[in-house]
Amino acid sequence: MDWNSVLDLKAFLPAKDYALAKQFYLDLGFTMLWGSEQLAAFQVGGFRFLLQNLYVKEWAGNFVMHLMVTDADAWWKHMQDIKIVEKYPGTMAKPPTLQPWGLRVLYLSDPSGVLWHIADEPKA
Which of 29, 71, 79, 116 keeps 20 to 30 A from 20, CA to CA? Predict the structure, then answer.
């Protein structure tokens, strides 16, 4: 196997309300690269995921995305500034907190229940 032949890896995220989920990620600061009635590609930095117009409650409620950033506090401030939780009822956001495994993690759930760990390295 030529492991160097791998060109990309993306997760498929579920969307309970596809239009609402697309707007959530746009508001959060992701770029929508393209979209159709069933699938949309989102990017932040050099990383992408696919949002699909498909929802299974058990799947969405157990799905976690991990996003490593340089400054989780800046992400938290942005979320507070745009009032993401107020704008999207049913979502949840918790400020960056040092976790036992050594990363500072900001927890955010999207409108479908997908949990995001937005993490940074603790500053010395």
Answer: 71
pLDDT tens profile 17-36: 999 999 999 999 999 999 99
Evaluate whether 13 touches 55 at the Cβ level (below 8 Å): no
Domains of the chain, each with CATH number or no CATH: 3-120 (3.10.180.10)
- Supply 95's token pair: 């400020």
- Asked if 54 and 114 touch (Cβ cutoff 8 Å), the reply is no
Whole-model pTM over 0.90: yes
Q: Which residue has the higher pLDDT, 123 or 43?
A: 43
Longest dimension (CA), the chain: 49
Q: Is 54 left (phi over 0), alpha (psi -120 to 50) or beta?
A: beta
Angstrom distance (rounded) from CA 33 to CA 30: 9
Can you give the length of the chain in residues?
Answer: 124
Residue 69 has pLDDT above 90, yes or no: yes
> 115 with 64: CB under 8 angstroms?
yes
Q: What's the number of CA atoms in the CB half-sphere (13 Å) around residue 52?
A: 10
